[in-house]
Amino acid sequence: MNAAEDVLTVTEPEPELIVVPPVRRPMWRPGLGFLHPRMWLPLVLMLAVLATLWTWGAHSMPYLLPPLGDIGATLREDADYYLNNAWVTLKEALMGLGLGLVAAFVLAVITSEFPLARRAIMPVAVILNVTPLVAIAPALVVAFGFGAAPKLIVTGLICFFPILINTSMGLRAVPQPVLQVYQTVNASRLETLWYIRIPMAMPYLFAALRIVFPLSVVGAVVAELSAAGSSAGLGTAISLASSMNRLAAVYASIAILALLGSVLLLLVTALERRVLHWHESRQGNGG
């Protein structure tokens, strides 16, 4: 008998194919459902605590905090007045934000592509960021008149610096091996920018937008308060109400501003979830 025939050949059994059913996402997604208890329960608790503290403060310090009923009555009686002024402020905020966003994004691309431009532009941007914009608002009024231009410029400058810094960091955050791969296939600078640098910068950009979207409302109010000749907007409403010692009207305008900022923050968060669904920060986070 051949020795090779004496060797027992052991064959491993073929592994059984295990079919894993696809993961079905629930129709109710807690990450996006604003009516889910995870979303509204903390808000209700916060509002309840705030209302309790406000009621106590209104009784002990009526010269500082008006009763919530007075604020609600002011909003009901002058609803059209506050809606019109809120619309003016919202338009100024969004237009100023758009102005600052476009300017900051273009400059971020330029500074990321050209180191010499970065060394020339960044010091000027830092100086603009630390300059009190309330101080230069009168100069803007002299230069551009009493229209909407000074308010848009002030709002855009307030939103400009966070977008510039974050986007510039994101455009330069591409790992060097990835850039080397694109260089080996002779990708142009424009292709590298479009397919690698801008997608890499999107999380950084949205991190800045979550700051500047609510901040744009603050910028519009600051512009209305500091720019002479302003005749509409919630900032003007606050100025007029405070000059007439109408404390409830002042807090009514502040409440609408807080609501506008919160809505803008929710909108940019929802947009971020939609655009950055591929990013690792959204994996396993209901996004």
TrEMBL record:
<dbReference type="GO" id="GO:0005886">
    <property type="term" value="C:plasma membrane"/>
</dbReference>
<feature type="transmembrane region" description="Helical">
    <location>
        <begin position="152"/>
        <end position="171"/>
    </location>
</feature>
<dbReference type="GO" id="GO:0055085">
    <property type="term" value="P:transmembrane transport"/>
</dbReference>
<dbReference type="InterPro" id="IPR035906">
    <property type="entry name" value="MetI-like_sf"/>
</dbReference>
<keyword id="KW-0812">Transmembrane</keyword>
<feature type="transmembrane region" description="Helical">
    <location>
        <begin position="248"/>
        <end position="271"/>
    </location>
</feature>
<keyword id="KW-1003">Cell membrane</keyword>
<feature type="transmembrane region" description="Helical">
    <location>
        <begin position="124"/>
        <end position="146"/>
    </location>
</feature>
<dbReference type="InterPro" id="IPR000515">
    <property type="entry name" value="MetI-like"/>
</dbReference>
<keyword id="KW-1133">Transmembrane helix</keyword>
<feature type="transmembrane region" description="Helical">
    <location>
        <begin position="204"/>
        <end position="228"/>
    </location>
</feature>
<feature type="transmembrane region" description="Helical">
    <location>
        <begin position="39"/>
        <end position="57"/>
    </location>
</feature>
<keyword id="KW-0472">Membrane</keyword>
<feature type="domain" description="ABC transmembrane type-1">
    <location>
        <begin position="82"/>
        <end position="272"/>
    </location>
</feature>
<keyword id="KW-0813">Transport</keyword>
<feature type="transmembrane region" description="Helical">
    <location>
        <begin position="93"/>
        <end position="112"/>
    </location>
</feature>
<dbReference type="Pfam" id="PF00528">
    <property type="entry name" value="BPD_transp_1"/>
</dbReference>
<protein>
    <submittedName>
        <fullName>Nitrate ABC transporter permease</fullName>
    </submittedName>
</protein>
<comment type="similarity">
    <text>Belongs to the binding-protein-dependent transport system permease family.</text>
</comment>
